[in-house]
Amino acid sequence: MSKIRVMIIDDSLFFRTFLSQKLSKEHSVEVVGSFGDPVEAAGRIAIIRPDVIALDMEMPRMRGNEFLRTVMPKHPKVKTIVISALSGNVFDAMHAGAIDFVGKPGSRPGFDENQFVREIIQKIKIAATAHVVMPSSAPARPAAPAARVNVSGASSKSIIAIGASTGGTEAILDILKRFPANTPGVVIVQHMPPVFTKMYAERVDKICDMTVREAQNGDRVTQGNVLIAPGGDMQMHLRQDAAGYYVYLTPGAKVSGHCPSVDVLFNSVAKTAGRNAVGVILTGMGSDGASGLAAMRKMGAHTIGQDEASCVVYGMPMVAFNIGGVVEQLPLNSISDAVLRRFSR
């Protein structure tokens, strides 16, 4: 099997050297270029022919987002992962076509060098096989609320659960921005590092009609509100008391390779909400969420999987479909209406 050809673009010589040395020890990866100047790097892509570019966000002459918007459309087969300090700019990069991001050393608490390198290598491998979804030129908000599906059939027990990984930040936004303010409560697990989940929730909240925030232990799941599981070492469960649904966050080991895990959330939704729930599994590598979605379907929930053509990585939805967990398999731009239709009666 041929090695994955990686180009590094970062204005820090120290970081370029560090990353080149670490990647050179990985048998499946070959560093084919290292540049401190993104303008120079842009002129060398066609010659060097990398499979994946590891791109810094804050650089002189051309910032990472500008590089993604102006340079990368000329090289549609080349995938990009962003390596960035703690900043909401990474979500602009996702919108501009980057496959995924990794927080730079010092951008998150408890930094572990070996874990950082393993994460980069894993995301390089995922990016090499991913499908680049070109950014949409459509406006951030739906043009006319009147065109949305009516949700008058929803009850206080209605709930929507969504799980995603690689490519999920844009996929989740595509769905949520189409939901009206009176949509039933939504709970989400998106695989993401600590701190970034809060920034992501704040970003999505500014775009959507629903209220979106990072979940805290005991938060109520109510109509018009979206709760996103915090990245880190907490698993998020759905529970119910006399007042209705709420989320329970507890320290826990990884499940299906992740913490928070989509499987943990979906299994708790299956047990707690049963047929009152709609489950959605979106783009992502691996199988997290597949068995949980199957459990939801078994308990009477309506389940939806994103189709292969619209996925950045057709992993989690594929496994869920193959084990019988998916009732409907749909392109991303059809999922929001399919969810809302479940509450239109």
Tell me about this structure.
With 345 residues, the protein is of the alpha/beta class. The chain has two domains: 4-129, Response regulator (Rossmann fold); 145-341, Rossmann fold (3-Layer(aba) Sandwich). Helices cover 32% and strands 22% of the residues. It is built from twelve helices and 14 strands. The chain has helices at 13-23, 38-42, 45-48, 64-70, 89-95, 113-129, 168-176, 196-207, 262-273, 290-298, 316-322, 332-341, and strands at residues 4-9, 29-35, 52-56, 79-84, 100-103, 159-164, 185-190, 211-214, 225-228, 234-241, 244-251, 277-281, 302-306, 328-330. A seven-stranded parallel sheet has the order 8-9-7-6-12-13-14, sandwiched between helices. It has a five-stranded parallel sheet with strand order 2-1-3-4-5, with helices on both faces. Strands 10-11 form a two-stranded antiparallel sheet. Strand 13 (302-306), helix 11 (316-322) and strand 14 form a beta-alpha-beta unit. The radius of gyration is 20 Å and the shape is elongated. The relative contact order is 0.10.
